[in-house]
Amino acid sequence: MLEVELKFPLDDAGSLRERLAELGAVATGVVAQCDAYFNHPARNFAVTDEALRIRTVGDESVVTYKGPKQGSAAKTRFELELPLATQTTDGWTEILTRLGFRPVATVKKRRELFGLERDGRAFELTIDEVEGLGAFAEVETLTDEASRDAAEHAVLALAAELGLTDAEPRSYLEMLITKRS
Fold first, then answer.
1. Of 6, 40, 64, 91, whose CB has the highest number of CB atoms within 10 Å?
2. What is the band of 73 on the pLDDT scale with cuts at 50, 70, 90?
3. Strand ranges (E), 48-167
4. Is 37 in the active site?
């Protein structure tokens, strides 16, 4: 599957919540996410535009691989996410580091989740409070390669309808690393 998303700095989360409600979006929960990112031992993911992370939400963890960005206006990339069968990520972190992967950084955020069905497409919308970076909104949908252009257009149109402008092309990880250096 391809993930198609746009991220926006957010000044007024309350106004966005109101607009989401007007459009019929359903609040689906609030979670604390902790994303531990790793770099490959033989290639630099910052150069290849890939990502490998372990995301922990409560007692659940998943490992995610994200391929290079493919889209033009929206950030579109291959994504594969698999659940980890253990409640602790310490063992997986040790395996990865013993294989030569290097921990890069950890991104912590509080994420409000909203779902919206529109024109036969499911969207996930979030309001994120990212530790060290501030507030952001994300508009996302999943698609296959054949529907990529339509999905990108749908994400752009929904973001515009929500009044979200000035998309931030960088990941939270990229922003955090830039801020630290």
1. 6
2. confident
3. 51-57, 60-66, 75-83, 102-118, 121-130, 134-143
4. yes
Higher pLDDT, 135 or 89: 135
Strand 134-143 with 2-9, pairing = antiparallel
> Among 131, 126, 144, which residue's Cα sits nearest to residue 8?
126
At which residue do the structure tokens 């990520």 appear?
Answer: 89
**Which of 8, 37, 45, 114 is the catalytic position?**
37
Q: If we measure between CA atoms, which residue out of 126, 57, 51 comes closest to residue 87?
A: 57
The rounded Cα 4 to chain-centroid distance in angstroms is: 10
Give tens-digit pLDDT for 138-152: 999 999 999 999 999
| C-alpha pair distances (Å), 57 with each of 40, 76, 111, 142, 156 | 24, 24, 10, 21, 28
Give the single-character DSSP code of 120.
T
Q: How confident is the model at residue 113 (pLDDT cuts 50, 70, 90)?
A: very high
Q: Fill in the DSSP letter of residue 147.
A: G
Query: What's the predicted TM-score (pTM) here?
Result: 0.92
What region does 51 belong to: left with phi over 0, alpha with psi -120 to 50, or beta? beta
Percentage of the chain exceeding pLDDT 90: 87
